[in-house]
Amino acid sequence: MHAALRRGAGRLAGRMLAAAVGTALSLAAVLPAQAQETIKVGILHSLSGTMAISETTLKDVMLMLIEEQNKKGGLLGKKLEAVVVDPASNWPLFAEKARELITKDKVSVVFGCWTSVSRKSVLPVFKELNSILFYPVQYEGEESERNVFYTGAAPNQQAIPAVDYLMKEEKVQRWVLEGTDYVYPRTTNKILEAYLVSKGVKPEDISINYTPFGHSDWQTRVAEIKRFGSAGKKTAVVSTINGDANVPFYKELGNQGVKATDIPVVAFSVGEEELAGVDTKPLLGHLAAWNYFQSIDTPDNKAFIEKWKAFTKNPKRVSNDPMEAHVVGFAMWVKAVEKAGTTDPDKVIDALPGTTAPNLTGGTSEMLPNHHITKPVFIGEIKGDGQFDVVWKTEGLVPGEAWSKYLDGSKDLVADWVKLKCGNYNSKTQKCGG
Amino acid sequence: MLFVGVSAARADAFDDTLQKFLTDSYTDTEAGVTALGAGGDVRAFAVVKALQDGRLLADPAARRVLIDDGGALKDAATGAVVSPAPPPADLKRVRLNNRLRRAVEAALGALTLRAPDPARRLDAAQAVFKSRDAGALPAVEAALSQETDTRVKSALAMARAAILITSPDAPEAARIEAVGMLRERGDQSALALLSALPPGTPATVQGAADSAAAAIRNRLQIWETAQNAWYGVSLGSVLLLAAIGLAITFGVMGVINMAHGEMVMLGAYTTFVVQEAIRQKAFTFAIPGTGIGFSLPLPAALTLDWSLPIAVPLAFVVTGMVGILIEKSVIRFLYGRPLETLLATWGISLILQQAVRTAFGPTNKEVSNPSWMSGAFELGQLSITYNRLWIVCFSLATFAMLLAMLRWTRLGLEMRAVTQNRGMAACVGIRTARIDALTFGLGSGIAGIAGVALSQIDNVSPNLGQSYIIDSFMVVVFGGVGNLWGTLVGAFTLGIANKFLEPFAGAVLGKIAILVLIILFIQRRPRGLFALKGRAVEA
Predict the structure, then answer these.
(1) What is the CATH number of the domain that holds A254?
(2) Mean per-residue pLDDT for B57-77?
């Protein structure tokens, strides 16, 4: 009874509060610039609730990019104007806020969302109102929409290279796939399981486990991992544990003495930001796979980090992978608008594939016809100071695949919005799934 | 003449090995480490140790390797301090990855088998046991014949067994004897060795290993049950800590306090503030933009080990005050109206969360474990982590103190009187409004000290409290509203049941199963495990 009441009451109160905060914020952003015509950029990231921990940073980085573009003279002779709303980590509210941004604030583009469920919740809105969403977070793939541009990694740009690294470098033969119980880990693990089996790993050497969101008592799981690892074969953990559950997980690993030299853990959702809350000394050598690390030594990255620290007025502020995805996505959008000469969504959507933008790690990313981008893949080891030491990277840039080759349902599907004008064209039946 | 020639040749071999560290390639570095471990040069230990600590620097321009010895740069080949020191930009730290770290541990093990310090010899023997590098066998046997310390001796014998059992050249009898030793050892690493013998192992050895592995598995199964029970106790203590404050505000006073979790969160942030002050060696308070603020220097001897003893009373006071403030400003107008109380306290919880988010930022805060709460110790095959052990003790102590307070102090007496019969208590001259505020403050304060303990195992973020509120209500309702003993029994029952279900059902299903069981139980016994009886129920 309490739980049910609490949830109902919570949703109501949360919505009211979020709506109030959201309106206040968007008012504040709209007022000063009304004098001249502007191009509006919507920012749809949670500033309160459970996801605020990750998403607030992305709002800040967007504000910085917009300010910078305005210093360069704006876009098409107009100033850019940020419209910030707060969907409060509440998935249905994401859809409401997206509608508000597009219909009321008339934004030309939206940068936003973090979790897959929030993306799924705004999809129908963007389709119906024909607007553009840039989605900056690594995700499970199996999707390609005309109105969405995916600047985060698809599974083949993060999960598969990481597993390859463990197989080649660490000679891992036994796998624990440990995840939080929701769509991204479940789909990623399905792809990984199919991939591992295709590489000759026996099913009894794969253990898949899910824990609830925010799981904090990892004693049993860590003991179980130790036991699974004592079968005489080199064992590794592939972690798709999300958000808050990571800190207690790593603390328990450290306390139970699971060292990276015995059982390495490679994580897909642990970046500089997440490690900011952990003492990383016992975690030395555990791994993460990303397309960007703060520690990567390139002139672009250095300049970006300096600007970021100056903008946030915090010399300790860290940068992470989804931030870089926004940097690249924003640069691509600016180029596409310049090329199209207008912010009209149809024209910009047509102009975006083929657009290139330098990423912060020294390469040039390109928007592909399937609305994913090319990215380098890095494997980093956790260092004592909460940063990562890159131990491996792909030769060139890896093109993002919307549909996994390793899943039965999706291996025949092709996404191509340039020639085929379709996000899920079935190459066997030669039909567009629509 | 001849002697000089030989030593020059040896120096060359050592120098050649060192050159491998200059290329910044993991493969070369690994070859270098292995060569140093096998070579037995006296200078090798310093080089490998420096590599492990990240103090080995390559100077590719001058083709030499340097050791950073507390600021002074020493040439690894000669041991002489290099002056003038080359500019830091020219030097590159020799990097490690996991494969290399293993090689380094193995090499260090082989190099320190004869170290004068027995503790280091023990580490070395254990490192060789882990690496089971066949090349180390002569060194192990030599060390074994001279070893006097019994613990080191048995560790060395174990290392020897680990090498022999996997070595195809070893005589069969020796390998079977090794199987016997590992069977004695009986832990997970022995099991790992026994269940992965290389192909081509003679049938007799394989047979002995299989039966030994089966025996170890059986024995570990029993230990596993004990381990699960311990995990259950540990989870139960966390539940108890989280729920015990609620047992006062909800159980004794009857206030549905949705802001209870936020009191826990405030306690955790208090711990963070204390630790931050200790790190900065000063307590600084400032309101940004106003210039109002002060800084209080702290004694330098104060280390993080003291942070928890300081944070516990502080958290109690801080959250107790917040609790009294909430009671005085909101809750006292809402007694007897549970739905309004629920909504109002839920609103307070959102306000507190967002306030903390604004003040401290949305990201997790680092709260480190004091040294006496880090690591684990082995009890048989049971691995017990210190932080969990302390939390079990701490929650039981908190419970005992609360019980004693209610039983033997005047405030406790008045609290019981007011909650049992408000009207009568007022008649005998107890200021009930004041007692209400103090009781609520006490419950909140206890939630705050729970936060100090939880900061050691969970995230310190504005959402900390939310993850505990449902569990807390569950414990209190299950244990029986208004009964502290019920809360204790309820917490440990739920903790242990959860941990025995988890290995079979998984964490998600386990949690669901527990919820279903509680619902069924409440259907049968609506008042929980320990129902209050008599007049108090109607009051």
Answers:
(1) 3.40.50.2300
(2) 83
